[in-house]
Amino acid sequence: MSSSQLDKSHLEYPQRRHGMDHNWYDWQMLSQRNPVHWPDGKKLALWVNVSLQFFPLNQQGKPFPPPGGMTMPYPDLRHFSLRDYGNRVGIYRILKALDQHQIRATFAINGELAERSPYLMEVLRSRGDEIIAHGWNMDRPHYGGQPLEAEREQIRATLATLQKYTGQTVRGWLSPGKVHSENTPNLLADEGVEYLCDWVNDDMPYPFHTDNGNLWAMPLSTELEDQFILRNNQHSEASYQEQIEDACRFLLTEAEHSGGRILALNIHPWMLGQPHRIAYLERALGFITAQPGVFSAPAGELLSHCKSMAAPG
Amino acid sequence: MKADPGFYDYWPYENRPKIQWPGGARLAFWVAPNIEFYELNPPANPQRKAWPHPSPAVPGYSIRDYGNRVGHMRQIAVLDKYGVRGSISLSTALCDHHPEIIALCKERDWEFFSHGIYNTRYTYGMSEAQEREMIRDSIETIYRHTGQKCAGYLAPALSHSEQTLDLFAEVGTELFGDDAGYYTCDLFHDDQPTPINLRSNKRFVSIPYSLEMNDTIAYVVNKVEPRRYGQMLKDNFDRLYAEGAESGTVMCIPTHNYQVSCPHRLRAFEEALEYITGHSDVWVTTGREIAEYYRTHYYDQARQDIAEKSNMTAEVCA
Question: Which of A139, A230, A219 lies closest to A177, judged by CA?
Answer without folding.
Answer: A139
